[in-house]
Structures are given as C-alpha cells and as structure tokens.
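Holo model, WTA. Inputs:
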Amino acid sequence: MANKVAESTSIDSVLHEDRKFECPESFSQQAHIPSLAEYDRIYRESVEEPEKFWGRIAGELHWFKKWDKVLEWNCPWAKWFVGGQINLSYNCLDRHVGTARKNKAAIIWESEPGEVRTLTYQQLHREVQKFANVLKSLGVQKGDRVAIYMGMTPELPVAMLACARIGATHTVVFGGFSSNALVDRIHDSQATTVITQDGSYRRGAEVKLFPAVEEALKSCPSVKNVVIYQRTGSAINTQPGRDHWWHDLMAKASDECPAEPLDAEHPLYILYTSGTTGKPKGLVHTTGGYAVGTYLTTKWVFDLKEEDTYWCTADIGWVTGHSYIVYGPLQNGAAVLMYEGAPNFPEPDRFWDIIDRHKVSILYTAPTAIRTFIKWGDQWPNKHKLDSLRLLGTVGEPINPEAWIWYHETIGHSRCPIVDTWWQTETGNMMLTPIPGAIATKPGSATKPFPGVVAEVVDIEGKPVPAGSGGFLIIRQPWPGMARTIYGDPERYKQQYWSQIPGTYFTGDGARKDKDGYFWVMGRVDDVINVSGHRLSTMEVESALVAHEAVAEAAVVGRPDDVKGQAISAFVTLEQGRKPTNELKEELRKWVAKEIGSLAKPDDIRFTDTLPKTRSGKIMRRLLRELATSGEVKGDTTTLEDFSVLAKLKDSDES
Ligand code: WTA
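Output:
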C-alpha cells in the first residue's frame, strides 16, 4: 500500500508551484482573523487547550442545557459537549428571529426557469415549524430516519430543518442518483418516510424524481409515507394512503412547533458516501459538535459578515451542501443564495449573471466547475461586472494551479482571496484551508489546518515524512464535527478510519507538506475515484456492471480528465457467447447510469477476455490505470484487448 501514494497522478502538476499570494491589505483589515500572528495564536491555543477553545466557541450558540464536559475521547469513539442539550434547527432559525435578522433573507432562491423566491428568517422559521408538524402528523418521531430525495428547491432545506427540529435523522439522497441507489440507502437506514418532489429542472428539461421513488418503494417495506412537493406539475401516479402532497399537508399544519431539546450526541443525519467495497457507507453526524464545527468554519473561512450574500453552488445532496448551504450559513444568520439548475442554462454565463443580479459577495464552487468554465471561454464571465465578489472558495478535489489562477484573475479580478478548502463527508467541516486575511495562499494548496485540527503527512508506520515528501494525510486529534460512526457498522468505521495507522484518523488521501508547513493534497490513495468532485467507489461501478447479464467480470479505474478531474474507464469480460459490440458498450454505459446514476457512467468501456490479477486474485488496478491513462491500447476499440503481456506481471503481488 505504501507505494500507492507515489503512484498518485496529480503530484507532478503541483510539485513545482512556487507562486504565493499575500492577503490583500484591505481584506485583512476587515477580517475576523486579521493576521498570521493571530491565526498562529488561536491555532496554538486550539491544540494545546482544545476543550477550552471549543467550549468558548460552543458558548456562541444556543443550548437548552449546557454541557458537563467538552470532550469524552475513547478512541475512536468521541462524544462532544457531553450532557449538553441543543437543537440545530433552533440555532439556524429561532436564535435569529428574536433579532434584527428576523426580516433578513435567509434563502434567496433562483429557479432554473428564472423565478426568484426569497424566504426571510421569519418565513423560513414558519415553514419549518409547519413541516415539522406535518412530519409529526405522519407519525415521524425522534430518532426515526427520513429519506429526502429532492432537487434544489427551498423545500429541501425546509425538510432537513424540520427533521432536525423534532430529532428525526435525515438522510438526503442526491437527486441525480438512480432508484437503485435510493433502495440501498433506504434499506440501510430503514427510513420510514420519504420526502421527494414530482420533478426538478435541469438544462431546460424536467428531471423526474417521484418515479424513481415509486420504483424504489417496490422493495422498501420500511417506508410508510411519502410526501411529494409539487414543483413541475407533471402527471404522477400516487398511491392513496402512502403518498401525500406537500401542499395538502402544509395547508392543515399549525405553524407552531417548538424545537425539541436534543442530546448533543443525537444523530442529526446520515450521509452515504463511497467506500472501497460495494456497500455505501452511511456516515453519522450528530448534533452538538457538528453545529459548532460548521458554525465556526463558515464564519472564519468565509470571513462571513452580516451584509454578505453567500452562494455555495454545491447540491445539497452532498456534504458540502449540508454543511455550507444549510447548517453553517444559517447558524451564522447569512443570506444564502440557492440555485436550482445548470450553470449553462440558458447560456454558459448563468452563474456570472446570478452573481451580478444578486450582488453575490462570496462564491464557493468546485474545481470541476471552474475547469468547465475555462473550457467555455472567457467571453462569458467577461460579459459581467462581478464586482460584488470579495471572496472565492473551492472544494471537492485538488485544484490545478492553472485553474486556480484563472479563477483568481477572470472571476476574482485579482482582488478576491481564494480559499481552497480540504475536507470530507467524514470530517463534517473544513479541515485544511486558508483563513482569508490571515493565511497567504499558494495555487493548488489547501494551506494550513483550521484551528483544532492536528494534521500530518506520515508514512505507513505513522512516522512523519520529511517536508516535500509524499505520504498519507492523517488527523491526530478528534474534532467536534467528525462523523461518529458508520450507521449500523461501527466495526467498519473503526477499521476503515482508525486502524490503518492506529490511534489516528486515516483520511485515505495522499499529501505532502512543504517547507512552509503548507499542505498539498494529491487525491485518494485507495480505489475510490473522484469524478467532478464526487467520490465514487470503483467497486460500486463494478458491481453495477457485473449485475448486467452479459458481464462476467469488470474492473473500473479512474484516469485523469481535464474537466472532470477523473474519468471512469471500465474493463469488462463478457459471458461466454456474448459479442463485444459498440451497441453493447452503449447499453452497459446506460445500464450503469440507471443502476447508480449518470455521474457513474463509464466514459469508456474496453472488452477483454481476462483481467490482470495478483496470485491472491486481486485485480491489478494499477496496471489498468496505466493502460487507461496512457491510452496505449492498440487496434480497434471494439476488439478484445490482449492482456497476455500484463498477465505475465501477475506474479508481482500488489498487496
Ligand atoms: C477530495 C467533499 C484536494 C479528497 C467535501 C477528499 C479535495 C474527498 C479537496 C472528499 C481539496 C475535497 N483539495 N482534494 N480542497 N476537497 N477533496 O466526502 O480526496 O465528497 O478525501 O467531501 O474529496 O470528498 P467528499
């Protein structure tokens, strides 16, 4: 495993980067953390006296009952704010409605067709209370799991906050996933209720959502009720007794539903992410620590101020949307812009148009989006002023320095600091990131650890590697926003994250630290690929392929892709008698899209009569990766590949 880091492909592109961007003076002067000295002082305190530090931050939130102890750490099991009682919906809403924020915009929503709807904190508070009563009327109780499968409409955060309000644990499933992915997640979480909508809009067309739920529920007996928000008005077949319209239930619901005091460790949500086996992992986030972690990172990393208009372009189906559209910004009383649709509808300048019209001041997006914008051409952003922007951010994958520079110049007009934030579904909140105003940036580096985060780059024995060398990125101490477990599988949580290098959190990413203490994250070291900033398990794509009747065996690898970060290459052996045709390739690609979602659709499929394996039978993905990357595949792509050369290497055991 140790040499897997060395084979990471992204290392070369960042290795020679030595440009450094100091914090603009004018930014530092007004920033929450105005200097490196101040960051250093806070960081030192946060790691020397973490309980004092986090206790002080937690004190900025509302607690029904104060905690007795800040941290109880029994590696890998953490309890934060032990004995405390809190409600995250209360902290996002009730805490503001008694202040001047009452009539401030909480969510400014723009639909893809172009309508704009604004919910003030008071209006959002009312909607959430009503929907919390709707959930109660359907028998949803504290501790029940509620699956949410929606598009980017304000009703999605309303549903999440309503769950949080009554202590139901939500599990949001990305609307781009197929009904099979929904089945897996509902089975695993044993959700009793599904909240969905008829459809959503994407690139001018309707994306149907309810039909996927309808299909999924054929094999999900745990689900008793479905609530459908009517967004597109297209015809659907509802099942009486089980399916209910959002608007019917809301019309009858009372608008008063006090937030339930919940134990700090009460599970707030489960979010599924890809692991290295076929079964997706449901990471469990709890209430108190997650509240504190998302609250503070939002405030400091975005240097959030009362007058900002903040826009995170992620989908709420991913952790970025949970932490930085919903829970972090709303706890801070921010005005959050939310957009429903595609960045190129009706034209490739939709984002820049939105920024100018709403005077967005903070933009948080993904490297894959930035690379797409570069491809579309500078004429699109150049049509717009973009002068309301003061801070830019990225997340999801390593950003290549050239894309960073383009973002800096073409979008930020060389005026806005960029925060390249490294974190994961598991970490709950940002971990390595510049704090703008305090930390100078280097293109391609997520710079330094956020206060309270003890990060290191180590070898497989856990020993720190010298500055400039590649190694595994680990975290040495617990932090409040960390996932507490894998739902229903604590052993897997322990194994996967806390046993690779005993006693430390293993991120699964390779990284190096330069002589200035800056971290450069190089990407995954395991069999997880990062497509457009979203982690996909190669195993999941493989199992989807193998589920097709024509496929005997499949191996899936990532190869570098200019726009998506990584593209998916699949190597497939067919069942006896099946012909390797172009039609079958297309059929398999569509099959995977149906099984998992179009994000997972292989970019290329190659038929082969054997896969290179180790003596222990493990597929040698490293070789396949090389083949997929260098493109050294001879002959017509529809013919079978000859792996006899690779097969000779099978004695060199990879494990
Ligand atoms: C990658 C998304 C480099 C990394 C919040 C990580 C990054 C995985 C960055 C988590 C970044 C995320 N620089 N790599 N700034 N941000 N990653 O769980 O490989 O969807 O482990 O969480 O994305 O993806 P996840």
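Confidence is low (pLDDT under 50) at residues 1-14, 633-642, 648-655. Residues 89 and 410 are 38 Å apart (CA to CA).
Archived with the compound record.
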